[in-house]
Automatic annotation (TrEMBL):
One Gene Ontology term of the molecular function aspect: structural constituent of ribosome
Lineage: Eukaryota, Metazoa, Ecdysozoa, Arthropoda, Crustacea
Residue span, Large ribosomal subunit protein uL15/eL18 domain: 28-94
Protein name: Large ribosomal subunit protein uL15m
The keyword Ribonucleoprotein is assigned to this record: yes
Organism: Hirondellea gigas
Amino acid sequence: GGQMPLIRRVPKRGFSNFRFKKDFAIIDLDILNLFEEGTEVSPIMLVEAGIIKNVKSGIKLLGSGTLDKTISVVVNKVSASAQAAVEAKGGTVTVHIIKTFKDVAGNR
């Protein structure tokens, strides 16, 4: 029995970014070799191919692995090495920025 300790009675305080965290689906350059030469790879194609389960908060392309084909990619974030690798093979990287509530609301 006994009284509940003070530290457990007082509500917890502090910073937590959990509600606003963006969880990106990660893909590597190796995975893009699964697609045909000259294909424009979109998030919907990645889901249909079973490479990622869902789009979550977006897709980020990372530069690990090698790219053997000319492919255009539509993603939400891209690392500098991944963008350089895609462009070196003659492909393009299109970055769609996800708008947040703060971006839409502006300075009200």
